[in-house]
């Protein structure tokens, strides 16, 4: 019995539903079966050369067949993949989630996305629609981003396959689901993918992903290695003047491999901790007291940084396995999957 997911049909069904919801003139084909719930995240079935018909012309996928991804990804283990104390118990790290055969083709596909002019601050209201499926430069952050919002258009097949792979791995994008508990609702696919492009010296200031999303973030890393830091938030009741500040002295560091690693954080780690990547270019850094070197492409690795090698053995130690410090930063692209609570764009 063939239980493969037909990603082409899923994409067309989602496109028809999106048009109906937006009040468009398009009418779904009544002969096409409409799915009433998220299909079980098993395998995919779609031609690797069949690009979706979107408003923006997307590059052709030249990687492995999309139906090969789901069976290859590891399943999240809430014990061996959890970042240990003193970090909050809702951060998980899988050092080699994406197969090697996928990493390079995915990076190539992302780099081939079309580009648009930089966004200006006074056009922020249309940001989601403006960057949908396109690279654009954030002038305040000096880096490029691209957005895929399934509330506007269905995810393209490569990202839809990854969304199914994440759910298949046991990652839940649900409001009431607590980490490690038995699922009580059908799995829900993430509907929002944010792509960030980082040059070697680039970072991102402490922030949270905010209340607009369900409290679960899953981020894939491609390219260079980097250290992700989580620090407790200073809440308004403690400092009413603070919009978002953190206690960097209490930060917990996780070493992210660029070979398709996956970091997942949810619940208290999502709500009560800011996360950041340090800038290594001192002209733009505000928190790099430990990066006293003249090479803007290197970063000091904290001695208590959590690290797991790519082979991901359950007995991997914390400090003894750390790579040499400082590490050389390189070009990196991250894919952040979330579920936006608002079902309409």
UniProtKB/TrEMBL annotation:
Task: Give start-end ranges for the coiled-coil region(s).
Answer: none
Where the record annotates domain Fe2OG dioxygenase, the positions are 189-341
A Pfam family for this UniProt protein? Answer: 2OG-FeII_Oxy_2
State the compartments where it is located. Answer: Nucleus
Q: Which residues form the signal peptide?
A: none
Extract the GO molecular function terms from the UniProt entry: dioxygenase activity; metal ion binding
Q: Which domain of life is it from?
A: Eukaryota
> Does the keyword Lipid metabolism belong to this entry?
no
Q: Which UniProt keywords apply?
A: Dioxygenase, Iron, Metal-binding, Nucleus, Oxidoreductase
Could you give one GO CC term from the UniProt record?
Answer: nucleus
Location of the region described as Disordered in the Swiss-Prot/TrEMBL record: 17-60
Q: Where is the composition biased (Low complexity)?
A: 27-51
The record's comment on protein family reads:
Belongs to the alkB family.
Checking PANTHER family in the record gives:
ALPHA-KETOGLUTARATE-DEPENDENT DIOXYGENASE ALKB HOMOLOG 6 (PTHR46030:SF1)
| Protein name as annotated | Fe2OG dioxygenase domain-containing protein
Instruction: State the species of origin.
Output: Phaeodactylum tricornutum (strain CCAP 1055/1)
